[in-house]
Specification:
alpha+beta; globular
Length: 506
């Protein structure tokens, strides 16, 4: 029996999963770690926490399940994107990592735009400067922690730090590197122009590979700690969104994924680079060689539903505990009992600002159209519909860019909800499909590892072999007509309220 391992380095924890070459889960292990917020808007994590989580989870899989280490043919790593890890010449971590959701770098984003030029920035990196990306974090460290920056020998992304710890090699790959805002997206290499204008030494960055290329091998020390065989190949891997797309088979033009996790992402593949000149969606290199992807992001997708659950669904939480079931199942039933459109109640899911299509960190969430006739169940359904409207915003821009949409695949925690999938089918006027594997990112990088070690000839072949459609939902024409009526109203609410968002900030 041959196995492939996928390591998914997330924000709340690391999940390591072992698959056979048919994509069946053999074993999995999860390790969590804290998030530090020393100031409002700041977000940091300890790189060593990630490493210990990776080592412990691999060791549990190998030793607890009696896995023959020789049978593990390759390892892939998926990672939370955009984080900045600095290490010195001895490989020692220079403090905590500033991670993707940190918001401290607004001034640095403006500085990047001023130095490069707004249009030129999009031409090179395919995206405007935003606080989430790595380049603005580097400028912040240069400005406020110059002595620490002087000691830095390498600037790494989170998963590439783990690669270094496991293999002793410095490397990154195109999908994750795209989110640093230092990559020439068209040519899939570091941009000398960006590095020169931002005063970043190219030697501080790791060499760039394609995602399925072998970038190192497990060292003797890592083998002793984890139970893996010394010399096991480790491939480039992928940023979490690209990894999840591979794990859902979104590796060909026309197949689009709609993912509802904490945030929401609409992800489309393309054989040629497509850039929105207004910067409303992100364009990155795909984990598939020679392909790119376009990605629209809703900041507060599953986050909105979790917020509503925690604030207003105490009885559902208590009942679910007694029934030993998931409270979201009960919430789905309540929301499903209310009519589409909730009698004219709309929800804006801007609890964490918004990216697509507004790119506004100051945007605020809210309900519009609330009357005395509305119930908690109406508000619950409105939250779910508001997230789906926001995902439609993403879908509309992708379609506007001329990217074909022939099949939409739902994934993420929200993709488990039949009601939420039906809302998307009704709003997108598209059939919504799900695939059989629940481990999108981990499966995605395991498949990349399979390509790198020769188990599959290409990423597309790997996906065709492993990934199968599980379910399909078609649009309900009656509900779709309701959403067609309310969507234009939803679209007009943000521009009408934007001046007040600015005043609320002051």
């Amino acid at each position: 029996m041959a196995y492939l391992m996928g390591i998914d380095l997330g924000t709340s924890g690391t999940k390591t999963v072992l698959f056979d070459t048919d994509g069946t889960i053999v074993a999995s292990a999860l390790r969590e770690y804290p998030l530090y917020q020393p100031k409002p808007g700041w977000a940091e994590q300890e790189p060593l926490d990630w490493y210990h989580a990776v080592v412990d989870s691999i060791r549990e899989i190998i030793w607890k399940n009696g896995i023959d280490a020789d049978a593990v043919k390759g390892v892939g790593i998926s990672g939370q994107m955009h984080g900045l890890v600095m290490i010195d010449k001895d490989g020692v971590e220079l403090g905590r990592s500033i991670i993707w959701c940190d918001q401290r770098t607004g001034e640095e984003c403006q500085e990047i735009t001023d130095r490069i030029g707004a249009q030129r920035l999009i031409e090179i990196t395919a995206n405007p400067a935003i606080t989430g990306f790595t380049a603005s974090k580097i400028l912040w460290v240069q400005k406020y922690l110059p002595k620490i920056y002087e000691k830095a020998a390498k600037l790494l992304l989170p998963k590439d730090y783990i690669r270094y710890k496991l293999t002793g090699e410095f490397a990154t790959e195109v999908s994750d590197a795209s989110g640093m805002q230092l990559l020439d997206i068209s040519n899939r290499c570091w941009s000398d122009e960006m590095l020169k204008r931002l005063d970043i030494d190219k030697a501080l960055l790791a060499p760039v590979f394609e995602s399925c290329e072998v970038t190192g091998k497990i060292t003797r020390q890592a083998a002793e700690l984890t139970g893996l065989r010394e010399g096991t190949p480790v491939v480039g891997g992928a940023g979490d969104q690209a990894a999840g797309a591979v794990g859902n088979g979104v590796v060909e033009p026309g197949i689009v994924s709609s993912t509802i996790g904490t945030s929401g992402v609409v992800f489309a593949s393309s054989n040629e680079i497509k850039i929105d000149p207004l910067g409303r969606v992100h364009t990155f290199c795909h984990a598939v060689p020679g392909m790119w992807h376009v990605m629209g992001v809703t900041q507060g997708a599953g986050l909105s539903l979790k917020w509503f659950r925690d604030q207003f669904c105490h009885s559902e939480l208590e009942t679910a505990g007694l029934m030993e079931t998931d409270p979201y199942i009960l919430m789905d039933q309540e929301a499903g009992a209310r009519p589409a459109g909730c009698g004219g109640l709309l929800y804006l899911p801007y609890l964490m600002g918004e990216r697509t299509p507004h790119l506004d960190p100051d945007a605020r969430g809210g309900f519009f159209g609330l009357t005395a006739a509305h119930t908690k169940a109406d508000m619950l359904r409105a939250v779910m519909e508001g997230v789906a409207y926001s995902l439609r915003d993403c879908m509309e821009i992708i379609s506007e860019m001329g990217i074909p949409i022939s099949q939409v695949r739902a994934s993420g925690g929200g993709g488990k909800s039949r009601l939420w999938r039906q809302m998307q089918a009704d709003m997108f006027l598209q059939d919504i499909y799900t695939v059989h594997s629940p481990e999108g990112p981990a499966l995605g990088v395991a498949l990349l590892a399979g390509v790198g070690c020769g188990t599959y000839r290409s990423v597309q072949e790997a996906c065709h072999h492993v990934i199968a459609i599980k379910d399909k939902l078609s649009p309900n024409q009656q509900d779709a007509a309701v959403y067609q009526r309310y969507y234009p109203i939803y679209q007009q609410l943000y521009p009408a309220l934007k001046p007040f968002f600015q005043k609320m900030k002051q």
